Amino acid sequence: MIDFHGYGPSIFYGAILTIEIAFLSLFLAVVLGLMGAIAKISNNRIANAIATAYTTLIRGVPDLVLMLLIFFGGQVIMNNFTDWLYETYEIDVFFNINEFIAGVVTIGFIFGAYMSETFRGAFQSVENGQIEAGKAYGMSNVQIFKRIMFPQMMRHALPGLGNNWMVLLKTTALVSIIGLADMVRLASEAAKAVHEPFTFFIPVAAVYLTLTAISEWFIKKLEIRYSAGVIKG
């Protein structure tokens, strides 16, 4: 392992932490995105209104502000709640928001809003004729979703999904502002200590570039898989 004036091992573990945050945030964002998309195309007005409010709020507020709001604001809310528990029921508990969980939840929450729009457009791109054909063959709603809707939806969603993933990956650098020791924060501290910014920030940029290159390759593979049998015009 490259030493980097003794900071190499810590920056390496910071890179592992960044990757963990990225993948856990992606999982949460996909789940929230699918839920938001289904709510938006449903006939349920309440679900539709909640999903619309969610995407409007998240897309209108900068990611940095949301990160600070959820982490510091969430801690204040939890403290007020524990104070109320103690004063009312004499229950003495204390909750401390973990930086890692806060980072994952915030990034997943932000990109869930973007992905809900991606999935909504993809769901609406599936031709009704194919769904009606599935019903004519006697498929259940679950079978129609699994065999027709999801594969077709994924084919339309993958370009937008891949773009969101690339931005999400770079957004993980924001977790350094809430005190999480990711590779950006560790590289920044090391660069300040030895006054050699290029020594630390170029490898950090290389890690992000490597991850995005691997992601592009994987997304291309998925696009080929979900476009099987489709004639390109």
Global Rg:
22 Å
Q: Helical element count?
A: 8
H-E string: HHHHHHHH
Largest sheet: none
What oligomeric state do these chains adopt?
A: single chain
From the helix content, strand content and strand pairing, which structural class follows? mainly alpha
Average predicted local confidence, pLDDT: 88
Strand content: under 5%
Q: Unreliable stretches, pLDDT < 50, 5 or more residues? A: none
Per the principal axes of the C-alpha atoms, what is the gross shape? Answer: flat
Helix content: over 70%
Ends: how far apart?
A: 49 Å
Strand elements, count: 0
In words, what does this structure look like?
There is one protein chain. Helix 1 (8-41) packs antiparallel against helix 2 (45-60), helix 1 crosses helix 4 (99-125) and helix 3 packs across helix 4. It contains eight helices and no strands. The protein has 233 residues and is mostly helical. It has helices spanning 8-41, 45-60, 63-89, 99-125, 128-136, 141-171, 183-194, 197-226. 80% of the residues lie in helices and 0% in strands. 27% of the residues are buried.
